[in-house]
Amino acid sequence: MKNHFLHICDYSKDELWNNLNLARELKTKFHNREDYKPFKDQSLAMIFAKPSARTRISFETGFAWMGGHALYLGPQDIGIGKREAVKDIARVVSGYNDMIMARLFEHKHMLELAEYSTSPVINGLTDYNHPCQIMADMLTIWEHRGNLDELKITYMGDGNNIVHSWLQLASVFPMHFVFCGPSGYEPDKKTVSMVQDSGVSTFELSHDPASAVDGADVVYTDVWASMGQKEEAEEREKIFSDFQVNEALMEKTGKDSIFLHCLPAERGREVTDGVMEADYSVVFDEAENRMHAQNAIMVTLNKFS
Ligand code: CP
Ligand code: NVA
Fold this sequence. Notes:
By secondary structure, the protein is α/β, with parallel strands linked by helices. It has two domains: 8-129 and 290-302, 3-Layer(aba) Sandwich (Rossmann fold); 131-286, Rossmann fold (3-Layer(aba) Sandwich), CATH 3.40.50.1370. It has twelve helices and nine strands. The strands form two sheets. It has a five-stranded parallel β-sheet. It has a four-stranded parallel β-sheet with strand order 2-1-3-4, sandwiched between helices. The longest helix has 20 residues, at 283-302. The two termini are 13 Å apart.
């Protein structure tokens, strides 16, 4: 499904590189406030079944800069899959709009939206994955490290949507990916198998934070309770407490590593204030890069529309 952006692994390594190169080009254009209007007279529908700061702001700002108009449709507006069937909304919305970005609970709803939409669909997060985030993460690592060769990425915490997108990336883009978290909270087995079967990257499952971060180029974490799981937050805080990214753990990398977090962060839980504010933390560059990476994705998809 090349006319949508649903999973990183729908793209080849070369296509991902094209996207990263374009993202850098568009970032420079944006910073120079160059006139760049590939979406003149076009509209982007942004469907949100869950809350958002970065995704909503970066898509709306990026699309407006590129000459288009973006509509915010919040959780109360559409009731996708509840008030109205996903396949009906897909045809209605794509009848008005040139592109759709959606943040949904169920991944199968994202697939259905894409199947029935006559406009390109961009996955802005589901319970299963978050591909736009990982494009921005790659861009950030590339900018700070100068290359993406022989990367060791250590992810600490919950085996959630962010991890699944990292694994999908690892199935097409070489790296050593370490997942370190408590037993029972590992990522989806089929998605782990994708990496193992691809022969592209190596995957390591760890329950020991100190050895997991040893030699890591990137230490990454995310909330211990994702959207839709917030009622489990207190219980999870106890289960995950040994997997906090703190200053002592960052020292154990033994390397000039960087720290990434997709945000929003719950300071004092999965990450300390000290790590968030440290020089090695590049989380705000990462957040800004959401917009540039997504602008590149939208420009690439526009060619197919
Ligand atoms: N990282 C991210 O997707 O942030 P939001 O939930 O604020 O959009
Ligand atoms: N895992 C988090 C990511 C937020 C961007 C969540 O789904 O809430």
